[in-house]
Predict the 3D structure of the following.
Amino acid sequence: MSAVEARLADLGLTLPEVVPPLAAYQPAVRSGSHVYTAGQLPMVDGQLPVTGKVGAEVTAEEAKGLARTCALNALAAVKSVTGDLDLIARVVKVTGFVASAADFTGQPGVLNGASELLGEVLGDKGVHARSAVGVAVLPLDAPVEVEILVELVP
């Protein structure tokens, strides 16, 4: 077991299976010393636990938990192309999309779920730049979608 996966276990988390693509793309692609993930939905066992807009059908706190699940799914996607999460030198960038009700402005707080998970699991290697974007709708009516860019050790 890698050190990162041991840390996940210490947190009571298990790395999930990679979420299969919904269309013509790969869950993650390695280019040189970087891995780019596709946008990861908060799928759990192949299902979205909740759907709808944040600030309407979904609370900001629920969405924050879903963003955490998205980040866990993104780590699974990274492992699918590297074979070992201990190869992560650092998370460079997190981009998050929040399906938002028209008056919802708490996207950064929602995306803290992903950022906090990466920090808990990777420590200083999990500190990153981030964008939090409100959108009208996401695939499958998901409330949140997260993609990450990681740099690998040489």
Remarks:
- The mean pLDDT is 97.
- The longest helix spans residues 60-82.
- The radius of gyration is 14 Å.
